[in-house]
Amino acid sequence: xxxxxxxxxxxxxxxxxxxxxxxxxxxxxxxxxxxxxxxxxxxxxxxxxxxxxxxxxxxxxxxxxxxxxxxxxxxxxxxxxxxxxxxxxxxxxxxxxxxxxxxxxxxxxxxxxxxxxxxxxxxxxxxxxxxx
Length: 132
Prior knowledge:
single chain, disordered C terminus
């Protein structure tokens, strides 16, 4: 049998990187640059001189790239998504009634589901022992 040479892929489970931008920040950068291209096209069609529109779009582009680089360096691969998810979480859940813990609804799909589960697991005698 002849000797075979296999290359080893050392980039497994590593985040996608491009010039220092990690993971989904590459997408944010691409969307921003496409938006800047469309902005330049709209400004150019309005008849504003190209050197003014080019300089404005260039300044906004530099600010956008620096902002995305800042987010990529600060939060890493999934940190910004976790920050957004954390900000959408409620501070607390309020419940002013114990009714939902005392007995399940007697009508609708919930009651049918509860009775089916009770029949299936007949060894449980109380509602609070069943995990839904």
